Amino acid sequence: MLPYKSLIKVDRKTSISLHIQVCNTFISLITNGTLKPSDALPGSRILAELIVINRNTVKLAYEELINQGWAESIERKGVFVLARLPIISRTRLPEAGKSNAPQKAFLWTDHFEDALPGKDLQKPTLAIDDGFPDVRLAPVNELMREYRSLFRKVYGKKYLKYGGSRGSEHLRVAICNYLSNTRGLVVSADNILITKGSQMGIYLAAQLLLQPGDPIAVGISNYGSADAAFRYTGANLLRIPVDSRGMNVDHLEKLLKRKKIKAVYIIPHHHFPTTVTMSVERRMKLLNLAKEHRFAIIEDDYDFDFHYDNNPYLPLASIDHNHNVIYIGSISKTFAPALRIGFMVGPAEFIQSASALRDLIDKQGDTLLEEAFAQLFDDGEMERHFRKSLKIYKQRRDLFCQILRADLAKAITFRVPEGGLAVWAEFDKKIDLHRMSEDASKKGLYIDNGDFYKNEAFVTNAMRLGFASLTDNEMIKALGILKKIIC
Length: 487
What we know:
Blueprint: H1 4-7, H2 18-31, H3 44-51, H4 55-68, E1 71-74, E2 78-81, E3 127-128, H5 140-152, H6 169-183, E4 192-195, H7 198-209, E5 215-219, H8 224-232, E6 236-240, E7 242-243, E8 246-247, H9 249-256, E9 263-266, H10 280-293, E10 296-300, E11 325-330, E12 342-345, H11 348-361, H12 367-378, H13 381-407, E13 412-413, E14 422-427, H14 433-442, E15 446-447, E16 462-466, H15 472-486
Parallel strand pairs: 3-15, 5-6, 5-9, 9-10, 10-11
Antiparallel strand pairs: 1-2, 4-12, 7-8, 11-12, 13-14, 14-16
């Protein structure tokens, strides 16, 4: 007989009844091959004594096994594992000298073996991120008030049903007004798809535009998650130099004379990661090239609202009269990253196809949340939030750069960004960013190691240092720790 005394353990503190615990243990013994079809189970009296429970509890466990089809009762003989069950081989320990690596249970294609792990900034209490908003400034109470209000209203219950994959019409109309007022971009609700952040928009655009082997032009330095989305389609990434005036469109023009491309991905407002802004001349030339060569422009404008020293340039989408631009924006980047709301703007037919694709992987967004955001736009709360945040972030940028100049000038080279939420910092070559990140963690500070900003054509000892999510005191403390580590 098997050593049931050690195999079957019952927990009297859990809410699961004892007979179900015993039943589940027997099922586990059957499915892992310990018990075979037709094996006899111990008598109820014997098992009750072994595991110190009431005999009637064992009987209930056996009845449950029989009812579920795992066992059968044979008159005057006892209870047995059902004879018709297939035989399951027990899992064997690896033989001496052989690999301990478990064999895969099924075959699948792993496109993400070398993918970097995502950043988890919910755990650190003090962090220099790569440019995220301060969630403490967001009008979350007002958002939740609108969210709860929808529940209390009779018509709000309809938002608990399935909705359209394009997203809330109310929010799409609100974003139309917002884009018109802030960017001079005049579109209708049919030109907008609500997404769960800008990354979904990039992914959807990539899937619709690109086939394996298709060339897409991207910056030598570029947003790594966008590169990953393009590579996933099998596209060929053509690297274009980026300087202080943004992507070098003259270089792109020369490339187009010998190679046809399907799309160009740009971040013209505050390039990621370097924060540079694309000049007006290059913007106009890029639009002319798109019209002439009939390629799409994926314009990622993730933080348009935060520009400090002058009025921001209009997006390419606002001056695109040939409809080559697919415009991607994010409310998450300006409000709170965990509240996944973004948008994609493009020709109505393209948006329809993007909506159909989105429907395959994510039937719809959070309609209630979208409706609540729409109400914040209607009430002017979002505009007030942007104005307030802009003022605070400018002050934080100035203090952050002041401390970098005063305390870390020997270790870090940078220029003051015109906008955005981060500084592009180039570290002295002697500084090991991996070791710096590890040492900072030991002192209670999260800071990246710079790997996310590298690619096959761009390797530099640099990273983005976000200032927006830090108060003055937090900033002084964080940069003080960094100074002790690298100076």
